What we know:
323 residues, alpha/beta, D-Maltodextrin-Binding Protein, domain 2, 2 domains, five-stranded mixed beta sheet, 10 strands, disordered N terminus
Amino acid sequence: MRAIVARTLGLAILVACMALPVQPARAGGRQVTVVLDWFLNADHASLLAAQYSGAFARHGLDVKLIAPADPGSPARLVAAGQADLAVSYQTQLGMLADQDIPLVRVGTLIDTPLNVLITGGTIHDLSELKGRTIGISIPGVDDAALDAMLHSVGLGIADVRQVNVNFQLEQAIISHAVDGVIGAVRTYELIDLQQKGIKVTAFFPEEHGVPMSDELIFLAGRDHAHEAWIKAFMDALAEGANTLINHPDAILAQAIGDHPELDTPLNRAAWQATLSRLCKQPALLNVPRYRAFAAFLHAHGMMTHDIPLERYALDPFSTPAAP
Length: 323
C-alpha cells in the first residue's frame, strides 16, 4: 500500500481540458468522473497528458479528475454509482473482490510497485531487522509484504515489533522512533528523505519475496466494464502516456502552471522518477501477474474465497464472458 503525501499538494482538484481541435468523438461527448487515489501528483502524469494533449476530447470524453477528501472513499464511490472510475491499488483489489464488492479492474496507471521498506542508514541487510521496530502505515497487505520479505532472510513477522505510525512515516524515521517503515513510496518519501540528507537504506518488496504487482489501477462497476466509454478512456490514456514520453517537460510545465504547489524540488524529482513507471498500454491485463498476486494474498490470509480472475480484473477490449 502506498503512503499518502498530502503535505505536498493542495485540496481537491478538478483538471480542465486544454482547448485543442477535436476529432470526431468515439464516446459521444460522455462525461467521465475519475476519483483519484489522493491529491494530484506525479503518479497522475498520464491523466494530465491525456487532458493537455486533447486526447480525452478527441475520444469524445469530458473527463473530470477529483481528489477525494477521504483516501478510502474512491472505490466506495464507484461501487455506489457516484463516480465512473476510481484510481486504486492492485494490492487492495483481491480484498475488495473477497468482500464481493462489484468492482473490476479495467486499466492500469502505474504498472510497477512503488512500495518500499525504508530503514535507518545503519541497517544494510534485512536480517539485521531481527528484534527491531518497524512502523507500518495501514495494516493488511503491508503486513503480508513485510512477512514475505522477512521470510526471504529466514525471519518472520514475530521477529520484529510493529507499531502503527499512520502516515507519519518520514517523521518516524527522522525522529528514530522506529528502525524502519513499510508503506512508504519510493518516488516520494524515499526521495524526500534523501533530499533532506537523511541516511537511509531502501529494500524493495519485489526483490525480497513479494510478487510483482501494478501500483495504481482503474476500477469500474462490474456491469460497465465493457462499455464503449471505458475503451475510449483507455485509448486516450495510452495516447497521453505516449505524449508524456515525448514531451515530459512541457506537460510538467503545464501542470505547474495550473497547480503552482507542484513546483517543488520533491515534486520535480518525483515526476522524473515516475515517468518510467507509467503504464504505456493501460487496458492490457497481465494475467499471470494478477494470478500470482492473488495466490500471495490467499497464502497470507488476505483473500479467503476462490474467485475467478475475470470477476474482478479484465481487459475491457476482451470478449465479455457469457452469463
